[in-house]
Structures are given as structure tokens and as C-alpha cells.
Specification:
The complex is a heterodimer. Chain A is an alpha/beta fold. Chain A is built from 26 helices and 26 strands. Chain A folds into three domains: 272 residues, Spore Coat Polysaccharide Biosynthesis Protein SpsA, Chain A; 201 residues, Rossmann fold, CATH 3.40.50; 162 residues, Glycogen Phosphorylase B (Rossmann fold). Chain A is 38% helix and 18% strand. By secondary structure, chain B is α+β, with helices and mostly antiparallel strands. Helices cover 46% and strands 12% of the residues of chain B. Chain B is built from seven helices and six strands, in the order ααβββααβββααα. The longest helix of chain B is centred in the N-terminal third of the chain and has 25 residues. The relative contact order of chain B is 0.10. About 3% of the residues of chain B have low confidence. The chains are: A alpha/beta, B alpha+beta.
């Protein structure tokens, strides 16, 4: 033989497998550029049909020289391969007879083998130790079934592979390309020790490794391997025996093998294939959300975002970048089929979880990496806490629309609650003297820092094409700190993030007129949300008929007279308020809300609301007449109001009716406006 | 986009995906996760400390069995490290005498543990203030195998080895020595009975 590569196929039994194997070699031989020959060695097959087939096969027309030789007696797999090594003039591929090769297989193996110091090259397969494809790929192409989609899988692997050709300790014997240089340097398989099969290729590879040769996995080539047929039931025993022999000969092998399994040199190539299984449909616009927490978190922002993404899922694909404790994560959520979105999560380079710098280079690098990794048609900044102001600088160069929802006033002040000591609202004062007192105490920052912070934001305002506020009052607050082109401002109410099926029908007049007045403070129990004034109210009415209840977690201590109900599920709030016989919901915190999801939940349950006299709650209460406003700094104003309401139940009934009759949109009703923004149009309804 | 760029982009995605999977294993505490689980514990403590803010100055007290506590309002916070307890006793003006019963009657708060951040030196949080630590011997991480071949010696109890400077100075006084003799005599007498 004068071929450059000799394909050696030892045959013993199993006509169907042998036929499939040899015919696949011939089928793909015609299109190969590698000069090759096929050497089939019949190891004294006991099956007449196999012998007959091989007799005919030798005379088949083929694009490569075919040689069929027959052992007089059964010599076993290892000795048969060694005979092949001896007969071949150059490189050899040892190919099991229960394999099926695919297009371009030998050219790619041969190209990998041409790298320096290579002893063996093994392709990927569905049954082949470390070279076994990920489960998802095996399943996707039905490789474990009677109808494996072999050529499709090979095409997929070739297209999505990284062609990283990772190094391994040992090749795998089902289809192993062996270079002549390695054979010359290390000899053939150890027939004497491993003559019964199993372990001979590992022994060879370890010998070659010691001699300075490398073993590569050709990760863009797939060869089907039915597997398990070579030794039938004796397989387990043969493997155990081989393992013991190898351990005896190479004391480092088990530890090295364990380390290789743990470090998995194929992890990245396999990840590339898994990602290739569900590619994004390029025709669907792709929007990146910048968020301060995982999108699955329980906060109102996250729930609103999830609801919005679901509402737009028919037309858009989404990804979310958010800080985690060792960097930033990018979660992709793409509609690749009819089922739920396909999700993947990527770790981007990063540092500590809580970014505190004004411009954090790590956060900038993470966002740039995300923009490099995938094509995005639009970016929607939901919350920059944990990202610093860096994303605004990065997005300045982004060529699609950038939308920024102002969900809190972080961009106006790092102390974004705008509360001094969690209690006194500042309202973004003109006089920075207050900031000079507040910032060192609340954030350990100076007023000069705030000035630099705002100057930085001001410089980067241009990166945002559309500023979205849920209420006019939120926009007004923002405009106290910055001049923003009015054309770039959109007011889009958030809509309800709870199911509107829970909406109340008619006011319960008996409850309003005949029961003691019961007020529910809903939400996280701390001063920022008004626990102080609620405590004062409860203390005032401790011996009277008015009851004060709290639904939610407590972050600070509640007065003894407050009736605590603990954590609640937003969806069940109406039912909980019904059960407790609540007539009015209290949201008296000094924090200037930019919208107030809890207020929406209260209105969905048909309860009027008491809120601060400023901010989004005040705006909504006044606009719709669905409650009353108070001064959060003045607990007496709440006490006076409640005393008045206790006497004037008719007023509660009127506000209750307005709450029940108020038109409340679900988040989905606002989705079209966001869709328009993502397409760079105006967000008109 | 060129083939090379496309391939690089695919590789970047694959590496980031694998990194996230490894990171998730760390977060779940599997295998290498002890550091991550400590980080999770620290987050929980930080959240609780935010809730437990107490008015007034903290003090440090010690039970008769030697356990040290920082008392903040109506909570006791155990100080497990002798080094930290000694340093805190110095910073908080010495140990406050308190009976075991009085300490036990307090609600258990977050233990006083050392927090670590990449941006500032290690610190403890007491009385809603951050106290940076100086002189704390910081461990240097090793992969796990480097020193496994060495035989293990006796445990060094750093916590027990340190005593507050105040107590050390007290030990130098004649009154302390006299009390020590009295206690020894009392023990012997009890033994005879």
C-alpha cells in the first residue's frame, strides 16, 4: 500500500454494523482530499454472512484502494490492529466496525494530526468516553435511538464547533487516528498485556505521552459509534481488568484521569455545541435589559420586567445583564420554538458584587463583553445600581435605541431614597447644604462627590434616547437635577403586576359602616416606608376601636398595638385584606415613590389609600380621588385623618367606589409603547 | 462579520457559559464552595445587622465560661474570636461586668465575625459601625494538596491564647494574685468536704 493514511477496520461479527461502517467509509471517501486506503481485516469471523459480504466488498468500485485480508484463526482485536499497523506504510486510523463515519471526517482528523508532536486524534461521538457528545446533543439528533440522525449531527458539529482541538491524556479507540511518527517511536499496541482488548489504546497513548507526543480531540468531527458491541457482556469485566493493568503500570494515571474529568478539557467545546442547539432567530429583535438583580428576584421592578418581557415575547427576544457576587451575569431568554423561552446564563468578567465607584471599569467591560457576545437591537436600562454609571458611557457608542426607565432616583443621588436618615425626604434640594450634611452620614460620601456624580450623569445623558417614567412626579424629580430634552421623555404607567381577575366588584357597605375602622400598612416595615408614623398611629389608638395591621416583612420594630400578618404574596393580597376586614391601606412613607406597585395592589383589591403628599402616590391619589394624602413628617396629620375617617365613613365609601371603578391596565397593555421605543419610534400608545 | 470573528464570538459565549456553570457550583457550595457559602452567610448577617440596629453604645461582657458577647440594646452577639474580643474590649472601654443570667436573658443576635471586602481591610460591625482590624493574621489560600503530605500537629487555639490587655494588666497586680490564692484555697477546701 502506498496510501498516506490507512483506515484499518478489524471485523469479527455483526453484518449490519460492518456494512454500515464500510459503506460509510466508501461513501465519504470520494469527497476526501486526504490520500487514503481501506484495510479490512476479517479476524476469522464465525458468521458466514459477514465473510460473504467481505468477499464481495473487496471488489466494489471505490475512490480508494480496498484490501480485505483474513486471519486464519481468531487473533483478537489488539493483534489484528497491530497487523494493520504493520501493513500500513504511513498514518493509520483504527476504526471499529460498529462506527459510521461522516462527511469530511478523515480530512479533519488528518489536519489535526498534522499539528506538531501529535500521536493520536479522536473525533467526537455518541459513545466514546470523554469524547461523548453532551446529552442535549445526543438527544437532539436521536443518536441513542434506532434512527439516529448521523449526517445531520455531523453537519451540526462541524458548523458549531470551535475547532479547539483540546488535548487529552488518551485518545479513544472507537476511531483513533495514529501518526506514523508515534508508531515508530512507541511501537504498536501491547498485545501481550492487553491482548483480550480494552486499555490497549490508553497504554499506547500513555507511552506516547511519556515520549513527548500529544493526543487531540477533533471537536469539529462526529463519528457515530453504536458501542458496547465489541465485547458484549464481557465489557464491564474487561474494563475493570484494563483499569487494574493500567494502574499497575502507570501509578499517576488514575489521579490524572480524575483531574482530567474534573477539569474537562472539552467543557468549552461542548458548551459551544450546546449553545448551537438553540440559536437565536435573527429575524426577532433582541433587547438587552440592564438590571440591578437577577430577573427572577422578588422585587416589584423584577416582576414588572418579567411581565413586560412575557407580554412582548411574541415579537422580541430578551437578555438581562445583572451583578452577581463575582462579576456580572448575562441571562439570555430566547423564543427558539413554541415552548417556553430557551435560557442560558453567562458569567462576564467582573469584580465585587456591589459596585460603588462612579464609573466602574469592570462593569463597563462586562457590558462591552455582552454587546460583543450577541447582537442587540436595543438596550433598556432598568436600574443602574450595582453597575455604576459606566453603562451610560458604554452605551454612548451603541447604534440602536437606548431606553432608560427611571425606577428610582439613583441617577439623581447615590442616596437614591432621597431620605435623610431614612426618614426625612429631601426632594432634591437646590441648596446643597442639606446634601453636605446628608451624604457623609448616609453614604459616607461628600457633596463634592455628588457634584461630580451629577456632572458625570449630565455628560452621559445623551446616551439615552428615551427616558421612561411611570409618573409625571418621577419625571419632575429627575428634571430638578437634569435638563432632559422633553422629546426624549415618556410617561408610561407600569400597569398592574398582579392578576386583575382579583379585582373587587362592589363595595362591602357593611364592612365600611358597621365594622371597626381597620387600616393596613402594606410592604416592608421600616421607617422609609412609614413604620414610624404607623407605630405612632397604633399607639394612639391602642385602646380604641381603630385597628392597625401590617402585611409584609418587618425591618424595624413595630409598636405592640400593630397586628402583624407577616410576609404575603402580592397575588393574594386582596384575599388577605378581605379576611382581615381592612377598609383602608396605609402607605405613609416619606420615600417619594416613582410609581408604587403596592398602591396598585391596594386599588386592585378595591381599597382606598393613604399616602405621602408628594411623589407618585400623591399624584395618583389626587388624580383619581382614590384616597388621602398626609405629611409623613407629621404623625399627627395621619392621626387626625384617621379620626376624621372613623367618623366620616361615607367618605371612605366614596373613595372605595372610586378605587373599584378605577380603570387599571395590566402591564401587557403598556407593552406596545415599549415595543415602539425598542424600534426607536416614539412610545405613543 | 468574518469567520474568525464569528468563531471568537462563539468561543467567548462558550467560555462564559462554562464559567457561569462553575460559578453556580461554587454558589451552591458544591466541592469548592466553602468560600462561597461563607459569602452567603456574610450576606445574611449583613442583612440581619441592618435590621437589628440598636440605639445606644455597645458594650462587651463575658460569661463565667469565658464566652465573650457584645451587648447591643436587648441583643447579645457572641464574639467567637478571642483576638477580636480582646481588641473590642480595648475599643469599647473594657468589659462590662454582667451576670450569666443577665447575658442569657438577652436575645441572640448576629455573631461578631470578621467581614472581608476587596475594597477595604477586614472589619467587624459593632453598634452599626465598621471597625477595621489591624494586626489580624490573614490566611493565604492554597489549592488544597500542597501541604497534605505533611503530618498534622496539635491544634493551635488562637482564641484561647489571647487575653484582653486589661485582664493581663490586672494579673500583674497584688490584688489579683491574692484573689487567685483565695480561689485555690476555696477549691481545695471544697475538695476535702
Amino acid at each position: 500500500m502506498t496510501a498516506h493514511v490507512t483506515i484499518v477496520v478489524p471485523v469479527y461479527r455483526g453484518l449490519t454494523d460492518v456494512q454500515s461502517c464500510l459503506e460509510s467509509v466508501l461513501r465519504h471517501g470520494a469527497s476526501m482530499t486526504t490520500r487514503s486506503a481501506l484495510l479490512v481485516i476479517d479476524d476469522a469471523s464465525p458468521e458466514a454472512d459477514v465473510r460473504d459480504y467481505l468477499d464481495k466488498f473487496a471488489s466494489l468500485p471505490a475512490a480508494m484502494p480496498i484490501d480485505v485480508v483474513r486471519n486464519d484463526v481468531n487473533r483478537g482485536f489488539v493483534a489484528t490492529v497491530n497487523a494493520g499497523f504493520a501493513a500500513a506504510p504511513g498514518d493509520v486510523v483504527v476504526l471499529n466496525s460498529d462506527t459510521i463515519v461522516t462527511a469530511g471526517w478523515l480530512d479533519r482528523l488528518s489536519a489535526a494530526a498534522a499539528e506538531p508532536d501529535v500521536a493520536t486524534v479522536t473525533p467526537l461521538t455518541n459513545f466514546g468516553s470523554i469524547c461523548t457528545l453532551p446529552r442535549a446533543v445526543v438527544d437532539a439528533f436521536a443518536l441513542d435511538t434506532d434512527a439516529p440522525r448521523i449526517d445531520e449531527c455531523a453537519e451540526f458539529v462541524a458548523e458549531h464547533s470551535l475547532t479547539a482541538r483540546p488535548e487529552v491524556i488518551s485518545g479513544v479507540g472507537f476511531c483513533m487516528y495514529v501518526t506514523r511518527a508515534a508508531l515508530d517511536a512507541c511501537g504498536h499496541f501491547d498485545e501481550e498485556t492487553f491482548g483480550l482488548g480494552y486499555g490497549e489504546e490508553v497504554d499506547f497513548c500513555l507511552r506516547a505521552g511519556r515520549a513527548g507526543f500529544r493526543h487531540l480531540v477533533e471537536d469539529s468531527t462526529y463519528v457515530y459509534h453504536r458501542g458496547g458491541g465489541s465485547f458484549g457482556e464481557r465489557r464491564e469485566a474487561a474494563m475493570r481488568r484494563a483499569s487494574a493493568l493500567l494502574h499497575g503500570r502507570y501509578r499517576f494515571f488514575r489521579a490524572a484521569n480524575r483531574r482530567e474529568r474534573a477539569q474537562n478539557p472539552l467543557a468549552v467545546p461542548f458548551a459551544a455545541l450546546e449553545l448551537g442547539l438553540a440559536p437565536r432567530r435573527e429575524e426577532r429583535p433582541h433587547v438587552l435589559h440592564v438590571l440591578h438583580s437577577p430577573p427572577s428576584a422578588l422585587g416589584g421592578t423584577e416582576k414588572h420586567l418579567r411581565t413586560l418581557m412575557e407580554a412582548l415575547s411574541a415579537d422580541f427576544d430578551f437578555s438581562v445583564i445583572f451583578p452577581v457576587d463575582s462579576g456580572f451575569a448575562l441571562r439570555t431568554m430566547w423564543q427558539t420554538g413554541r415552548d417556553a423561552p430557551t435560557e442560558h446564563e453567562f458569567l462576564l468578567p467582573g469584580g465585587a458584587w456591589q459596585v460603588t465607584e462612579m464609573h466602574d471599569d469592570v462593569a463597563a467591560a462586562a457590558l462591552r463583553t455582552a454587546l460583543d457576545m450577541f447582537h442587540f437591537d436595543a438596550v433598556h436600562v432598568q436600574n443602574l445600581i450595582g453597575h455604576s454609571l459606566a453603562p451610560l458611557a458604554v452605551l454612548d457608542g451603541f447604534d440602536g435605541p437606548v431606553v432608560c426607565s427611571v425606577r428610582d432616583l439613583f441617577l439623581a443621588c447615590p442616596n437614591h431614597s432621597l431620605l435623610y436618615r431614612d426618614r426625612q425626604a429631601c426632594g432634591i434640594p437646590e441648596d446643597m447644604a442639606l446634601c453636605a450634611r446628608c451624604l457623609p452620614e448616609t453614604r459616607g460620601l461628600t457633596v463634592e462627590y455628588l457634584e461630580r456624580f451629577r456632572a458625570t450623569v449630565r455628560d452621559r445623558l445623551g446616551a439615552v434616547d428615551h427616558w421612561v417614567f411611570a409618573t409625571q412626579s418621577a419625571a419632575d424629580y429627575f428634571l430638578r437635577a437634569y435638563d432632559v430634552d422633553p422629546d426624549r421623555i415618556e410617561i408610561i404607567e407600569h400597569g398592574a403586576i398582579v392578576d386583575l381577575a382579583h379585582r373587587a366588584g362592589e363595595p362591602d357597605e357593611a364592612l365600611v359602616f358597621d365594622e371597626p375602622l381597620r387600616l393596613a400598612f402594606v410592604g416592608l416595615g421600616w421607617a422609609k416606608k412609614g413604620l414610624d408614623v404607623v407605630n405612632a398611629l397604633a399607639d394612639h389608638f391602642a385602646d380604641g376601636d381603630v385597628e392597625v395591621h401590617h402585611f409584609g416583612d418587618l425591618r424595624e420594630r413595630a409598636a405592640p398595638a400593630v397586628r402583624l400578618h407577616g410576609r404575603y404574596d402580592n397575588e393574594l393580597l386582596p384575599e388577605l385584606l378581605d379576611r382581615a376586614g381592612i377598609q383602608v391601606v396605609l402607605l405613609p412613607g416619606p420615600y417619594a415613590e416613582t410609581f408604587g406597585h403596592v398602591m396598585t395592589e391596594a386599588l386592585v383589591s378595591g381599597r382606598p389609600v393613604v399616602g405621602a403628599r408628594y411623589g407618585a402616590l400623591a399624584e395618583r391619589i389626587r388624580r383619581h380621588g382614590v384616597g388621602w394624602t398626609i405629611d409623613p413628617d407629621d404623625p399627627q396629620s395621619l392621626i387626625d385623618l384617621v379620626e376624621h375617617l372613623d367618623r366620616a365613613r361615607e367618605e371612605i365609601l366614596r373613595a372605595t367606589r372610586r378605587a373599584i371603578e378605577l380603570h387599571i391596565d395590566p402591564v401587557a397593555a403598556t407593552a406596545d409603547r415599549y415595543a415602539a421605543l425598542y424600534r426607536n419610534g416614539k412610545g405613543e400608545p | 462579520m468574518s469567520d474568525v470573528e464569528q468563531r471568537l464570538r462563539r468561543e467567548l459565549r462558550a467560555v462564559a457559559l462554562v464559567n457561569r456553570q462553575l460559578h453556580a457550583q461554587l454558589e451552591d457550595g458544591g466541592g469548592l464552595g466553602f468560600r462561597a457559602s461563607r459569602a452567603a452567610q456574610a450576606s445574611a448577617w449583613a442583612a440581619q445587622l441592618e435590621l437589628d440596629r440598636a440605639p445606644g453604645d455597645p458594650v462587651i461582657a463575658r460569661r463565667s465560661d469565658g464566652a465573650a458577647y457584645v451587648i447591643e440594646g436587648d441583643r447579645r452577639r457572641e464574639v467567637r474570636s478571642g483576638l477580636v474580643a480582646a481588641a473590642l474590649a480595648e475599643a469599647l472601654g473594657g468589659e462590662r461586668p454582667m451576670s450569666d443570667a443577665a447575658i442569657d436573658a438577652l436575645a441572640e443576635g448576629v455573631p461578631v465575625e470578621v467581614f472581608e471586602s476587596p475594597k477595604v481591610p477586614p472589619f467587624v460591625v459593632v453598634g452599626s459601625r465598621r471597625y477595621p482590624l489591624r494586626g489580624l493574621p490573614l490566611p493565604h489560600p492554597v489549592s488544597g494538596d500542597e501541604f497534605q503530605h505533611l503530618p498534622q500537629g496539635e491544634e493551635l487555639n488562637v482564641a484561647a491564647a489571647i487575653v484582653p490587655r486589661a485582664r493581663f494588666q490586672e494579673a500583674l497586680t497584688g490584688r489579683y494574685q491574692l484573689d487567685r490564692v483565695k480561689r485555690a484555697v476555696a477549691r481545695r477546701l471544697r475538695g476535702r468536704r
